[in-house]
Amino acid sequence: MSEEVDQSKRRFLVGMTAATGAVGAAAIAVPFVKSMLPSARAQAAGASVEYDISKLQPGELITVKWRKKPVWILKRTDQNLADLASLEAKLTDSTSDGSKQPDYAKNEHRSRAENKNLLVMVGICTHLGCSPKHFPDLAPAGFEEGWVGGFYCPCHGSTFDLAGRVYKGAPAPSNLEIPKFKFLNETTILVGDDSEGTA
Predict the structure, then answer these.
(1) Alpha-carbon span 161 to 152, nearest angstrom
(2) 17 lies in the same domain as 54
(3) Dihedral of CA 46/59/54/119: which sign?
(4) Is 156 noted as a catalytic residue in this protein?
């Protein structure tokens, strides 16, 4: 007695078993792959920050948060920029060779050429991570004669000019950090991204 095997039934069962296995593998793989992606909180922590600078007045400084750091946006006056050149002999790193900034900000004013008056800078002292204070006044009490405005860290006495460059003799080893940034248009700045094109 010969038994004939139904090949079509066998192919169907093998195909269904393979399909079920593939679906099961995908169901296991998807959560595993998702667990390796950064969380929404982590993505937000490193995200770029847009800010409207249309209402920023000359001499005014505002603080925005980026990567949990205070970032200062200062609109300097033309006189502030003129004063920067007169300070070079008093500074530790006037050309910003040993400081952290994008290449386009490695200049006397430490900003982009298209808007030299706007300073974008991380407001954390390079000594021990304190936050310096903004002293825009000319020669306020307690500062040396000839002070033309800048930043002072009260924790250990580091002083910086209005480009974030550190004065000689200060405990801070380098100039304040300039983050990546770009202008999206005449009134909007993007901190944390300087790539070409739109954000």
Answers:
(1) 9
(2) no
(3) negative
(4) yes
Per-residue pLDDT of the chain (199 residues; tens, 9 = 90+): 556 667 777 788 888 888 888 888 877 877 766 665 555 554 455 678 898 999 999 999 999 998 889 999 999 999 999 999 888 889 999 899 989 999 999 999 999 998 999 999 999 999 887 888 888 876 556 667 777 888 988 888 889 999 999 999 889 999 999 999 999 998 999 999 888 754 3
The catalytic residue among 109, 127, 134, 156 is 156
Cα separation, 92 vs 152, whole angstroms = 15
Residue 109 lies in a domain: yes
Q: What is the CATH number of the domain that holds 88?
A: 2.102.10.10
Does residue 97 sit within a domain?
Answer: yes
163: containing domain: 45-191
Residue 12 and residue 75 share a domain: no
The tokens of 33 are what?
């792959």
